[in-house]
Amino acid sequence: PCLDPDGRLWLGADDGHVYAFDAGGAMKIRARVADLVAASPVCDGAEVWFADTTLRNTAGHAVPLGDEPVVAPPAFGDNGELYVGSWDGKLRKITSSSVEWAVDTGGQIYGGAAVGRDGTVVIGNRAGVVMALAPTSEVLWRVELRDGVYGTPAIAANDTVFVGANDNRVHALDMSKGTELWAERLGRDVRSSVALMQDGSVIAASWDFKLVCLDGGA
User: How far apart are the C-alpha atoms of 54 and 90, rounded to whole Å?
Assistant: First the structure.
């Protein structure tokens, strides 16, 4: 879920509706927008955005994204642009309520994009590919892991990219070249998004029912 500036809690559901609740739990909005709303809604500080095969917001903008659904939340760039990945394997950049570009990553996208301080966008896909793209759509590097990526990568302040994969590992990649710095094996598949703590440690969950905290330097 996400919060809007008025403190309302927004979420989407398998029934194709988006809902908004106030702080006391009372339902304020229930609107059908699709057959299925699997992606988490996000707020840009003013409007709430949600996606299925179309990217919409509460101001009434609608941007068609294709025939395949979006299952991960859109990611914001520094200039208000949105990056949206889809099951059709394409990462799209949305500006001014239209698709500026779409890049085929070569595999279904289940997780969200991560945006670095310089605007570099990092995305992973089910084929095990992690890609970094410039805001202009230029592919900066492409790395093939041993198995699929289902979660959202995380970018640390030192420009290290952390990403979990179905090869049971959390990978640390150099942001500038994509070079693997280390890979730490957990008990089973890492399908969760990874999260970063203020002290630089990395949190991930694996299919052996464990939540693991790693030192950022492995």
Answer: 14
* SS (HEC) of 118-161: CCCEEEECCCCEEEEECCCCCEEEEEECCCCCCCCCEECCCCEE
Radius of gyration from C-alpha coordinates of the chain = 17
Give residue-wise pLDDT tens across range 190-214: 999 999 998 889 999 999 999 999 9
Identity of the amino acid at 95: T
Dist. CA 160–CA 168, nearest whole Å: 19
Alpha-carbon distance of 120 to 122, in angstroms, equals 7
Q: How many CA atoms lie within 13 A of 98 on its CB side?
A: 2
Is the pLDDT reported for residue 6 higher than 90?
yes
| Cα of 125 vs its chain's centroid, Å | 11
Res. 35 pLDDT band, cuts 50 70 90: confident
Contact between residue 10 and residue 20 where contact means Cβ atoms under 8 Å apart: yes
